[in-house]
């Protein structure tokens, strides 16, 4: 059984250890870091300012998922464009030894529940690279549905064009299903 808690700086070592290669790293972080591999300090610098405060006060919430053996997964929540009604889940990663066992789905469902019940969101969104089918199916199984966007979003990685699929779930959908 998983539970969520706020991310702690000491979680970084465990989380970045799950990125066994740059492909996994980029699927986790997109182009948000300039180099691979990253260090614990790189991750914490991205999340916190030099005073140790969250980098984006009242807009950025890194979370760690744990089970009875320790850290099992990680993601962030952030409000989109300052709108406190739309919450975005990002930087989703699960311990590579626990993938394929339902941890991702359970963690995302905990994030959705937190987003609606605690953060008061009206909609929660998430993006996934088209070439990351396991994550796409995980998000769909957790309750997200595909969203048509006006413009296709592409990320250039490894000399390739990685298309981003947008997904969302609305408050009414969530509480109807619960």
Description:
The chain is built from 6 helices and 8 strands. By secondary structure, the protein is an alpha+beta fold. Strands 1, 2, 3, 4, 5, 6, 7 and 8 form an 8-stranded mixed sheet that branches. β7 (153-157) and β8 form a beta hairpin. The two termini are 18 Å apart. The mean pLDDT is 92.
| Poorly predicted tracts of residues | none
Q: Cα distance, first to last residue?
A: 18 Å
Mean pLDDT: 92
Helix content: 25-40%
Give the H and E element order: EHHHEEEHEHEEEH
State the helix count: 6
- According to DSSP, the number of beta strands is 8
Report the portion of residues in β strands. Answer: 25-35%
Radius of gyration, Cα only, in angstroms?
16 Å
- Derived from helix and strand composition plus strand pairing, the structural class reads alpha+beta
Largest sheet: 8 strands, mixed
The dominant shape is globular
Keywords:
eight-stranded mixed sheet; 178 residues; alpha+beta
Q: How would you summarize what this structure contains?
A:
The protein has 178 residues and is α+β, with helices and mostly antiparallel strands. It has six helices and eight strands, in the order E-H-H-H-E-E-E-H-E-H-E-E-E-H. Strands 1, 2, 3, 4, 5, 6, 7 and 8 form an eight-stranded mixed sheet that branches.
């Amino acid at each position: 059984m998983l539970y969520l808690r706020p991310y702690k700086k000491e979680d970084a070592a465990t989380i970045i250890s799950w990125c066994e290669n740059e492909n996994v790293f980029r699927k986790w972080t997109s182009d948000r870091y300039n180099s691979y591999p990253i260090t614990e300090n790189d991750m914490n610098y991205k999340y916190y300012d030099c005073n140790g405060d969250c980098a984006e006060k009242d807009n950025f919430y890194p979370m760690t998922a744990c089970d009875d053996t320790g850290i099992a997964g990680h993601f962030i929540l952030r409000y989109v464009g300052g709108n406190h009604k739309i919450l975005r889940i990002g930087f989703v990663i699960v311990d590579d030894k626990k993938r394929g066992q339902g941890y991702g789905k359970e963690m995302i469902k905990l994030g959705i529940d937190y987003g609606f019940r605690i953060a008061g969101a009206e909609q929660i969104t998430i993006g996934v690279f088209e070439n990351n089918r396991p994550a796409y199916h995980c998000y769909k199984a957790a309750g997200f549905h595909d969203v048509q966007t006006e413009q296709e979003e592409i990320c250039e990685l490894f000399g390739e064009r990685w298309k981003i699929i947008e997904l969302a779930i609305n408050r009414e959908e969530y509480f109807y299903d619960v």
